[in-house]
Request: fold
Amino acid sequence: MSERIKKRVAILGSTGSIGTQTLDVINNSYCELEVELLTAYANSKLLIEQARKYKPNHVVIVKEDLYQEVRDALSDLPIKVYAGIRSVEQIVEMDSIDVVLTAMVGYAGLAPTISAIKAGKNIALANKETMVVAGELITELALEKGISIYPVDSEHSAIFQSIVGEFHNPIEKIYLTASGGPFRGKSKEFMELVTPAQALKHPNWTMGAKITIDSATLMNKGLEAIEAKWLFDLKPEQIDIIVHPQSIIHSLVQFEDGSMKAQMGLPDMRLPIQFALTYPNRVKTSFPRFDFTAYPNLSFEQADRSIFRSIDLAYAAMRKGGNMPCILNAANEVAVESFLKEKIGFLQMADMIEKVMNLVPFISKPDLDAYHRTDCEARSVAMELVSKRK
Amino acid sequence: MSERIKKRVAILGSTGSIGTQTLDVINNSYCELEVELLTAYANSKLLIEQARKYKPNHVVIVKEDLYQEVRDALSDLPIKVYAGIRSVEQIVEMDSIDVVLTAMVGYAGLAPTISAIKAGKNIALANKETMVVAGELITELALEKGISIYPVDSEHSAIFQSIVGEFHNPIEKIYLTASGGPFRGKSKEFMELVTPAQALKHPNWTMGAKITIDSATLMNKGLEAIEAKWLFDLKPEQIDIIVHPQSIIHSLVQFEDGSMKAQMGLPDMRLPIQFALTYPNRVKTSFPRFDFTAYPNLSFEQADRSIFRSIDLAYAAMRKGGNMPCILNAANEVAVESFLKEKIGFLQMADMIEKVMNLVPFISKPDLDAYHRTDCEARSVAMELVSKRK
Reply:
């Protein structure tokens, strides 16, 4: 262990759920991890607090009108303060950064992730939308630059942990486990009247609003399937989804001999975050341990795809390829926002996404510009559909 | 994969349950594995049949009065035939053998395993008694000779598969899963009247008689705990046993970060046998695959140690160390045989083992001779106890 090298971490999106848990992990890492850069969108108060505690060399506040506030609050410390999304894209390229943890929400994570990969940084990927939207482009770029993308999503971390030491052995199949969300087993009638407050109550995981709604619709699992396709070089038919309400088995791999490996434990995002940052090493923690007596039964069931239509929509987008997952993602981001603002109902999210997938022109080999155009167009089509409903 | 080297396998105990399944695996191995040596104790008919099919260069029939029969039956083939246990010990040393799979039953596996290790062969260990009796001596010898011991027991294979690629990360704890055997949840009153026929019906695994009885008493799990201690360099308190009636999760590892990894699948010994022989590679199989819809619930419970006393006896022997596990093992072999011959009842097996553990002199640092003496003495003490009962 003596040859372990201290890693300097950039956290994109440090004030969100993954960001704050990442700081927890760094705090617990016996100085194996250090903070080099923190960025936040608009939560200047928390960003200031984090910067004062963890003393990074750089911070970026994306929302530019908050720059002065952040700069003034940190003026007594040797911390450089920047503003704007372009600053994030530039600063992630700095030599002093070893690994970039991307925890920004949604499509916004794409550009900084590309900048970081181009600068040869390893990525701890918490922003699944990056892979959903532009998995082909990202994986090609990663290969070209010789960098590694370590998954932070608990499911993909479980797969990654399960194939460590076996990268030479082909994967036959993976099972992504899903908690089933707060509406597992509910009827269509019940689902029609679901409120944002109900949908925001996840049974097992404490997460941000966007991903919590995605978990309630199971779109999160569909996006994860697309993410898994790119991270582990799989075909859609090699990726299965199984509902596992206790969220103890975080996902499974089946190898070609038929043997399966699973990674398990209490639902705690700090574990996959830490593994992404300290791989191939594990760092001792005092996090609570799993206890079989508290979980005498682990159960498994199929998702009801007639209610949770997002899964089939995501698989259709994955099979179609090109810019279709980008369309799916953009439509979903608008759908979730519209649902949270009570502009559309719970079940209408899938209806709307399906419509947008049919309306936005398909591009089979998109470049980065085409992704940007697709994202814009899909969002405006989606928003038009929402406004028409009103 | 092109650099894969064909491995030549010696199977000690080829006519038993593990032996025949090993030949199945070799048959399925796309010529990655070839048979160099087959040995059997007394099943000359099957040994002849296997030799004619797999064409090893050498066979040994241990029971010497069967030598003529085996030699005559194979006289038209270029197969060298030998007799006696000493022949096994010598032939495993041959240069043409790459890996020795030890599937002999009980204490008899110890001497040939030592010969093979001394000759620098890697071991696929199916004879857990070898590690139970002389784990300290075996692991020291393996280290000295620079050979690897690959576990074949499904539980230890599960642990091994789970730590592949993570040998540098300390194990915090392991859970050995136990089916619970045919008498899980039964009362003491019921157990007093159990017959050998009832005890030989294992709910999930098809195995030899000795290990099936050991599974019914849960002594098998106790022996496995001792085996795990030596294979994975663990303290007794790092080894836990959990009853899992479906036998799907074959065992689990917990690392120091709190993350757990499990190896799973349908109960099929061919999988761990194959992994022990082809490691670090997996070979594609057409064995049936696990299906969650057939196992919607995986359950876990504590063993009732007041009825299944073997576990505590094994842990006591493990903690005591020295020749105590050897005493435990010898007493258990006599107990199982006596139970199968209906000389003692089911619950009396543990009583007898406990008595033998108290009667045979303790040796804290036994050498191989001391193990032999201990084994002899423990057996004669045990047999005396059995005969006194009559």
Remarks:
- Chain A has a mean pLDDT of 95.
- The radius of gyration of chain A is 20 Å.
